[in-house]
Amino acid sequence: MTRESAEELGEDDGGSVVYDLDADCTADDVEQDTPYLAEINGVVDYGVFVDLSESVSGLVHESVLEGTYRVGDELVVELEAVRDNGDIAFEPVDTDEYELESVSHDYSLTGTNRLEANVGEQIHLEGTVIQVKQTGGPTIFHVADEYGVVPCAAFEEAGVRAYPSIEIDDVIRVTGTPEYREGSVQIEVDGLSTLEGEDAEEARERIEEALDTRAEPHEVDPLIDWPAFEKLRPNLREVAKLLRRTVLEGRPIRVRHHADGDGMCAAVPVQIALERFIADVHEDADAPRHLIKRLPAKAPFYEMEDATRDLNFALEDREKHGQQLPLLLMLDNGSTAEDVPAYETLAHYDIPIAVVDHHHPDPEAVEHLLDAHVNPYLHDEDYRITTGMCCVELARMIYPDITDELRHIPAVAGLSDRSKADAMDDYLELAAEEGYDETRLQDVSEALDYAAFWLRYNSGDQLIQDLLQIDNGDDERHRELVSFFADRGREEVDEQLEAAMPHVEHEDLDNGAHLYRIDVENYAHRFTYPAPGKTTGEIHDRKIEETGDPVITVGYGPDFAVLRSDGVRLDIPQMVSELEEEVPGGGVSGGGHLVVGSIKFVKGKREEVIDALVEKMEDAEIDEALSSAAPIDD
Amino acid sequence: MTRESAEELGEDDGGSVVYDLDADCTADDVEQDTPYLAEINGVVDYGVFVDLSESVSGLVHESVLEGTYRVGDELVVELEAVRDNGDIAFEPVDTDEYELESVSHDYSLTGTNRLEANVGEQIHLEGTVIQVKQTGGPTIFHVADEYGVVPCAAFEEAGVRAYPSIEIDDVIRVTGTPEYREGSVQIEVDGLSTLEGEDAEEARERIEEALDTRAEPHEVDPLIDWPAFEKLRPNLREVAKLLRRTVLEGRPIRVRHHADGDGMCAAVPVQIALERFIADVHEDADAPRHLIKRLPAKAPFYEMEDATRDLNFALEDREKHGQQLPLLLMLDNGSTAEDVPAYETLAHYDIPIAVVDHHHPDPEAVEHLLDAHVNPYLHDEDYRITTGMCCVELARMIYPDITDELRHIPAVAGLSDRSKADAMDDYLELAAEEGYDETRLQDVSEALDYAAFWLRYNSGDQLIQDLLQIDNGDDERHRELVSFFADRGREEVDEQLEAAMPHVEHEDLDNGAHLYRIDVENYAHRFTYPAPGKTTGEIHDRKIEETGDPVITVGYGPDFAVLRSDGVRLDIPQMVSELEEEVPGGGVSGGGHLVVGSIKFVKGKREEVIDALVEKMEDAEIDEALSSAAPIDD
Amino acid sequence: MTRESAEELGEDDGGSVVYDLDADCTADDVEQDTPYLAEINGVVDYGVFVDLSESVSGLVHESVLEGTYRVGDELVVELEAVRDNGDIAFEPVDTDEYELESVSHDYSLTGTNRLEANVGEQIHLEGTVIQVKQTGGPTIFHVADEYGVVPCAAFEEAGVRAYPSIEIDDVIRVTGTPEYREGSVQIEVDGLSTLEGEDAEEARERIEEALDTRAEPHEVDPLIDWPAFEKLRPNLREVAKLLRRTVLEGRPIRVRHHADGDGMCAAVPVQIALERFIADVHEDADAPRHLIKRLPAKAPFYEMEDATRDLNFALEDREKHGQQLPLLLMLDNGSTAEDVPAYETLAHYDIPIAVVDHHHPDPEAVEHLLDAHVNPYLHDEDYRITTGMCCVELARMIYPDITDELRHIPAVAGLSDRSKADAMDDYLELAAEEGYDETRLQDVSEALDYAAFWLRYNSGDQLIQDLLQIDNGDDERHRELVSFFADRGREEVDEQLEAAMPHVEHEDLDNGAHLYRIDVENYAHRFTYPAPGKTTGEIHDRKIEETGDPVITVGYGPDFAVLRSDGVRLDIPQMVSELEEEVPGGGVSGGGHLVVGSIKFVKGKREEVIDALVEKMEDAEIDEALSSAAPIDD
C-alpha cells in the first residue's frame, strides 16, 4: 500500500505509524513531515549517513543528534531539506512506539499525451512495442500506449541492441525522461522491462481497449443523401477502423491505386487524412513521412512486379528501421482475379490487405486473401459508385476535419469515370456550392489524367494535390492551372485522333452493331499522350456520337487489344476463356467485364485472335442499357 | 536620439544631462560614468532595487545610500559594477538640476558578413525572408540581407511553425545569437518581427539597392576579340545579373541542357560558377547542393515529361523545405516553338525562365514566356556562336575566378557543334596555349558524346567534369582518359556503320543532289551507341566525303526520320507543314531548320510520308553555301 | 629516454638525477616526488612562476621559497599540487649536485582497439589516412591503424578543410579525445601531424605488417572434400586476402554479379561476410552501408552502361565523401572478352578488379586488366564448379562465423546452373543435413530466378536473403515462401510454353541432330517472365526429353538469337566470327562457348543470318558428351 492510499483510507499517521520505504523507492517517494525508518550506514564527525532505500540516502547532522550511533542501527527520520546539489538532509524523529507501514515505489504512469508537460522529469510509461530501430548509437523502441506513440532511446553500447530480449508486440514498462530531440519528444530510457503475468495481461487489456475505442471511426454524415451508398457504409467504416487501428499500432501503410482520375480522387484524400491522423498519434514529427506512401499502380491490377518491389521495400524497412511490415491498401484497383498472384506473394508475410474498388470484382478469387473489401458490386450496386466517392467518405471517417477540403472531389471522381449515378446531380451541386461548375470539374478530371500520364510511376504528391485543390489556396490560379493542363491534354488527344481517325475501319455486324477497329500501333503515336487505351476510348465516344448505339470499338497493337462496347453485351472474361481454347498457341489472356476489357496474345497470332474475337461479337446480344462509361485502363 | 549620437553631436553630458533608457533598452545600452534615471522597485535591508528599463535592473547598496527611499521614487544612478553572475550594482549620482535625454535601444545591425566574429553574442539583423523550412523541431527562416543569407532557427514547439504570420518576402528584424550548427553559422532566434511602414520601406530599399549592386556581373574581357560575339554580350550580362540576383535572393536554379558536347560545355561551367557564388553568399554550407541542379534534357526541346517532373520536384521542395520555386535555365535548348507547351505549364507558377541557345529560334512563339533570352540568331548571327562559347563568358561574368579553368572549353564546344565561326582559330589557339591541341580537343568532344549516351538521364557530374578537365589536376591522365573514351566511341560508330553502310540506298535527285537513305531500325543496332541521329549524321559525313556536295541523307525508323543536307535548301519546318496537309492521318510533326531536322509520323504511314518527302527534295533549291554542320539531335 | 624507461632500467632518481622536460612535454609527463629543472619566468609578491616545458608552468609560493630570484634563473622543483582549476603549484627541491636527464613527451599510442576504454581522455594514435571527408563543419579523417579504422574530426572553420596538406595514404599522428558521436566512437582532434622520415617509415612498416597479417584469410576446411576444387583454393585465398585487405584499408567494394541463381548464391554470401568484417574493422557504425554495394549486372557481361554509371558513382563518392575509388568484384561474370571495354574504362582510374567466374574465360583478353581472377577453366576444370560453390568458400575465408548459415547454398548454386559436378552428391547431402531436400533446394533456385526477374536492376537485398534463408529464422515460412515463388514461376513458364510450343519448328539436320526453332518475338509474351533466353532453354529441355540427343534449339527475336545444344559441338564464338564475314552489313556479334551462346544482328538481316547459322549447324560435329546444362543468359 502506498502512503497516499494509506492517507486516503483516513488512517492516522501522526506518530503511531512509521513508513518503511521499499528497496526500489526513490527520492520522489519521500514526503515532508513524515517519519521514515532509516538504517545507519556511516558514522562521521559531523553526523551519520542513513539509507531509507536502495537509492534514498542522506545525512543526519550531528547538531540534531543525541547519543551515539553505530553502523547498522535503525533510526526514524524526517526529511529536513534537499540541498541544491541534490544531497538530502534528514532529522531524527522522536518515536516511542510505532507501527511500520511499508511504502511501495509510486510507479504512477504518465501517458504519451502528457509528455511535453513532463520534459526533463523522470516518468513511467507502459505500452506495446511497435518498432525497434537499432541506430549506430542507441536502440529506439517505439512504444504505443492508450494515447499515442513515442520513441524511447535506450543506450547499451555504440550500435549494440539494448534489451535484446524485448521484441515487437511486447508490453513493457519504461522508466525514463522525456526530452526534445531534434524538436520531437523522445524518452531517454533509464530502465525498461517486460511486464509479466497479470501485470502484462492487465496492461495489454487496458491498451487494447483504449486502442479499440480510439480506432473507432468518427461518425460523419455522408456529404449527400444516397440510399445506394448506404449499403456500403458499414463496410467503409470497417476499413476506416482498420486503418485507424493500423496507425495506432504504428504499422506503415502502403497505398497502391489506379493511376487515373477516380483513382487519384480516392487515394489522395485518404493519404492526407491518414497523414494528419499519424501526426496526431505519433510524437515523432517524421512519422507521417515514414509511415505512409502512396504509389500509382503500373497496371490496372496489382502486378507481380509491383508486389515484388513493395515486398522488398517492406523487408528493407523492417531490417533497417525495425518497422513492422505494412498494410497494403488497394484503391480503385484490387478486386479481381488478376490481383491474386500478387496477393498470394504477400500472404507469406504479415501484410494485411484492404481493398476499396468499384471494378467488377471476383470475390471468390480474392476474398480469402483480403482483410477488408469494399466494392459496390458486392451489394448489388455497380461502378457508378466510384472509388473516389467512397474514399472521400472514408477519409472523413478517418479524419473529419478534412471535410471542407473535399466537397468537390466526389464530383471530379464521378466525371472522371463518367459515372451515371443518380447521385451525380447532388455531387455536382455540392461542388458548385464550392465554386466548381461542371467545366472546372471536367478540367480537373482531364488535368489529372494528363498529369498522371507524364508523371508515370511517380506519385507526384504536390502537383496532384495542386490539381485536386486539396489543402490549397488560390482559387483563380487553380482555375487557370487545371484549364491549362486540361486544354493541353485535349489538344494532344485531338492530334492523336487526327492521325488515327482516317484509319478506323468500319464493319456492320450481323447483330446490327457497328464495329470499329483501329490499329493503334501503326496509326497512333506511340509513347505519348493519350496511350492506346484512352485513344481507343476517345474514338469509341466519337463514333457513338456519329452513329448512335450499338457500337463496339477495338483498338489493337501488336500483342494486345482493348475493347469498348455500348449497347452490346460482350462478356469479355467469357470471350477470353473461349479464345484461350480456340486459338492454341495464341497465349490469350485478359480481363474486364461485360462492356470494357483488354486482351493479350502473342504477336504472331494477332490476326487469328482478332478474327475469332470479331466472330464472337457478331453473335453478341444487343442490350441498349449497357454502356462502357468508365475509361479503359491503358 | 541615442546617447552615442548625442555624443557625436558634441553635447555636454557632464552633469546637466541625465539619460532615460527606453523600455526596450538592454544592459548593452548602459555605459560607464553616465547618469541614468532609475525607479526604485524594492527596498530591502541592504539597499534598494532599481529599474532603468524593462530588462535593466540592479541593486544600490545601502552603504552608498543616504536617507530613506520608497518604492516608486526616482533616483539618478551610475553603473558601479557588473558581477560575475550578471547582477548589476549601481551607485547614486548627485544631481541638482538636469535635463533628461531619452536613450533608445541600440539596434545597430550586424550584417551576415560579420556573423562569425559575433558567434555567441546576441546581435540584430534585418533582411528579407527567402525560405521558411519547418523542421521536426524549430522553424528555419533563411534571411537575406545586403551581404548574404543566413538560416535563423526559431523554436515554438516541436514541429510547430514559429511566427506563423511571417512569410517569404517579408522584411524582418531578427534578434538572436549566431552559433555554429553542424559547422555552419546559424542564428538562434530570440525574437523576430516584421518591419512595418517606413522602417520596412527603408530596409527594403536598402537591401534592394545592395542586392542590385551585388547582382551586377563582373566586368570581364572576353577570352578572345570577336566582333560578332559583342552583339550578344549585353544580353549575356543581363542573364548573368538575373542569375546572380537569383542566388542572392535564395531562389533555387534548375538547369536543363541539351545532352550533347556543346550543351555540356555550356551547362557545366555555369553550374560550377553558380555553385561557387552560392557558397560565397550562403552561410549554410549545404546551400550549393540544395540550390542548383543540372539535368540533361531527354529531347532536343523541353518536353512535357521533363516539365511535369521539374514542376513536381519544385512543388515538393517548396512543401518540404519551404524553398521558393526555382528559376529554370535552359541551355543549348529552349528557343523553339516546341518548348512552348512546357513553358506554358510553368507559367502558371512563379518560375522565371532564362534561355541561352544557338538553335534556330522562334522568338514569336517563346519570347513572351521568357524572362531572358540569348540567341545569336536574334542578332543576325547564327549557330556558329555556340552555346558553350556564350556560357563560358556567362560563367566568367558570374564568377570570374573560374576563368583559368575554362580557356579550353569554347574550342571543345565549337568542335562539338562543328562551328565554322571565324573565331574558332582564336579559340583553338587559346586552347593550345593550355596544352590542348586539336586532337585532344576532338577527343574531349567525342568522349563527352559517348559518356553522355551511357549516362542517359543522369547528369554524371563528376565524370563529365573529369572529361571536361574543369577543377581537375592530372593532365596526363586526362589525355589518356578522353582518348580512351573517344576511341571507344569511334569504334562503336565504326561497328554501327559497318552494319549500316551496305544498306544505304542511293538516288540521284532531279535537282542534281545525291539522296542517301538508311533504314536505321532494320540496318543499325538499336539501343546502343551511336543512336539513330548520330548514325545518320556519320553516314551523311562519309557520303559527302565520297561524293561531294550536294548531298541529302535521310535516316528513318518505324515512325521517325532524321534529315541532313549539305548544299540543298530543305526548309524542314515548311516541309513538315506541307506534309501535315498532304498526308491525312499521317500524324506528321517535326522540327528543325533549313538543313537539319527530324520528322515524326505514325508507323503505318511511313512509306507514304517518306515518298512525299523525297518528292519535295527533288524540287529543293541547290545552295552550296548551306551546310548541316551541327549534329542532329537524336 | 623517457622517465619510465629510465626507471625500468633501475636507475636511481633519488637526488642525483634531475629531469629536464622536453619542450613538447605536457602535464601528463610530470610525475610526483620527482625533481624537475624549471626556469623562472616571473617574479611576484607571492612567489615565482616557473616553466618546465612549453606547456607546463606553475607557481612556487613565496612561503616555501628562500632568497631572491630573478627571471631566467634555474630552479629544481617538485610537483606540490594540481589545483581544481588546473593551476599547478611546485615546491623547490634541495639539490647540490645532480645529473640532468631529459624526458621526452610520452607519445605512447592508443590503438583503435582501445578507444572505448579511453572515451573522454586525450590519446595519441598513429595510422594511415584512408578517407578525408569535408563536412559542412569539421573535416573527418578516417584513420586506419593496426587494429581498425576510426573517424577523426578536425575543425578549422565551418566547412573549411582542416590540415589541407594531409592526404589519403599519409601516415599521421593524431592527438585527440575519443568521444561518442551518434553512438559511434570518433576522435575529436586536438592536433594532427604527418609523420616524417624514419618515424613515418617505421610506422608505415608496422601498420603494413599488421594489415598484412590481419588481411590473411582464415584457414577453413572446405565444406566437402573435393579434389577438383582444391586446384582453385589458392586463388580463392588470394581473393579473400585482397578483399580483407581492401576492407582494412577502407576502400569501398562494388560487387557486380550475374542476375541468376548461381550469381546470387555467389554474391550474397560474400556481401554478408564482407559487411560483417567491415563492421568489425570500423568504429563507424554506418561503414558497412557505405563501403559495400551489391548490384545485379544488366547483361551477362559488364556493359559499358553499367561501367559508366559505376564510375560516375565512384567519382561522386570520392568528391562528396572523400572516399577512395572502389574495388570492383565481378562474380559469376567477368571472365570474357566482352568485359574488356568496361574494364579498360576503369583502368584509367585507381579501381582494382577481381573476378570469380565459371563461364568460359578469355584469359588473354582480360588477364592483364585484372588484379585477381578465379575461374575453374584456368585449372582445366569447368563450369561444373559453379561460382556459388566457390564464393561460399570465399565468404568463409573472409568471415568464418558465417559458415553455419551457408551449408545449403552450394547445392542451390549447383542446381541453379544444373551442375553435373561429382561433388553435387556431397553438397546435396550437406544441405539435407540442414533440412533441405532436393525439392526445397530446387524451389529456392526457381524462386531466385523468378524474384530476380521482377526485381530487375534492384538488388533486392532483403527479399533475396529471405529466399536464400541466410541470416534468417523461420524454417516453415521459408519452405512456404520459396515453394510459392517457385510454383508461381513454373506456372508462368508453363503459360509461356503453352503459347510457344505449337510454333516450334522442327528440322532434321544432315548430321542427324534435331533442330528446333522458335520465334520468341512473335510466339512468346514479351516483357514478362520467362524472358527469351529462359523460354528457349525450357523448350530445349522439353525437346531433349521428347526426342533425346542430339538437339539444337534456336530462339530468335528481331535482332538476336539464343542457342542451346546438347550433343552437338557448335563452337559459337567461331560461328560468330565466320558470320561476321559471311553476312556483310549483318552487324553480327555475340558470345558464348561450345554449346550455349547468343548472337546479335541487325533486324533487316535476320533471315540471312539465321539461314547461314543453320547451315553451319548441319556440318557441326556430333559429340554426345556435350551438354548445355547451364542456363542461357537472357
From TrEMBL, chains A, B, C:
Under the heading Pfam families, the entry gives: DHH (PF01368), tRNA_anti-codon (PF01336)
Keyword check for Cytoplasm: no
On the tree of life, the source organism's domain of life is: Archaea
Domain S1 motif: from-to ranges: 33-93
This protein's record includes keyword Hydrolase: yes
Q: Which GO terms describe its molecular function?
A: exonuclease activity; nucleic acid binding
Task: Fetch the SUPFAM superfamilies from UniProt.
Answer: DHH phosphoesterases (SSF64182), Nucleic acid-binding proteins (SSF50249)
Q: Which key words are in the record?
A: Exonuclease, Hydrolase, Nuclease
Protein name per UniProt: RecJ like exonuclease
- Organism, as annotated: Natrialba swarupiae
